[in-house]
Hints:
By secondary structure, the protein is mainly beta. The protein has strands at 8-14, 19-24, 30-35, 39-44, 49-54, 60-65, 71-76, 80-85, 90-95, 104-106, 112-116, 119-123, 131-133, 142-145, 151-164, 173-186, 192-197, 201-206, 211-215, 225-227, 233-236, 242-246, 258-260, 268-273, 279-284, 289-293, 298-303, 312-317, 323-328, 332-341. Strands 14-15-16-17-18-19 form a six-stranded antiparallel sheet, with no helix packed on it. Strands 1-30-29-28 form a four-stranded antiparallel sheet, with no helix packed on it. The chain has a four-stranded antiparallel sheet with strand order 2-3-4-5, with no helix packed on it. The two termini are 17 Å apart.
Amino acid sequence: MSETVKLPAKREFDFAAYVSGAAFSADGETAAFALGSGIVKLVTIADNSTREVEAHNGASLSFAPHPDGTSFVSGGDDGRLVRIGVDGSLAEIGKAQGRWIDALATHKNGGIACGIGKEIWYWAPGVAEPKKLGPHPSTVAALDFSPDGSRVAAAHYGGASIWQVRNPASAPRKMDWKGSHVAIKYSPNAKFLATTTQDNAIHVWRLANGQDMQMAGYRTKVKALAWTADTRYLLSDAADCFVCWDFSGKGPEGQPPVEYGFGDGAGMTGIVAHPDSGFVCGGFENGALRLGDMDSRRDLELRAPADTQKPIRAMAWSPDGWRIAAGAEDGYAVVFDLKNKS
């Protein structure tokens, strides 16, 4: 934006370790950051205090809010899946000796799923032992629950598999497409399932009839996807701006994407969408953070780029949409408060 604007108030931290994940409690009053050192940092918004929890003997590789709203789930390279409370408590959910847990999904209805090799381990609400879904054609690369929590989808070599969590013994629905699929995201209206591939492309299935479409042309591998709350736009990283595929009407295949928010040529390393509106936040390889508005197609620089800054690797919106948390490779972390101006 060319005109002078007041930026949101922010809280900045130096955690001195790679920030691999970020999440908020259900009330938005605790921001949590998972680190490559295996530590999880808890930030209490009210007094800006921090609490440290030693979650793993090794790195935290995957991170998400726990369905209970007052804790978080972390998967580590020590094979442990753990629950971290906002009070600093720590409890083990499960363990897979000798395995990395780098694929994780949770749902507010109570479901928790993680990838263990070629399998999904799924914990139903209130159940201590997981159901094992699979095997898949390759290691499970990413997971996502359907909006209603009734299904969990896995990305892997050759496409995606959709499992009914209430009947895990049933065969999954197979969504086939050649190559390795590395990220996966349901649309908020549950009509589409999107994945990213090693071929620098996005693949999307229309779930009603299985029709699929491919959007290619990215300069690097796409690692992150985000849908706007109304499912009109699918956004991705791996470009130097906000790339937005329009799913209104007949959809985007064969049509150019909407693009805006061009900066200095640095590639985007992550993208997250506002839970209720058309705002999106993108992080970049030069440490910049930009807030985009899909309605006006304008953007605001929340954090300016700098040669000394490392790539943004983790971002999250608070459930009410008024706060953004982000973290970078060098341990920089920030919480923006969109209700207040600095």
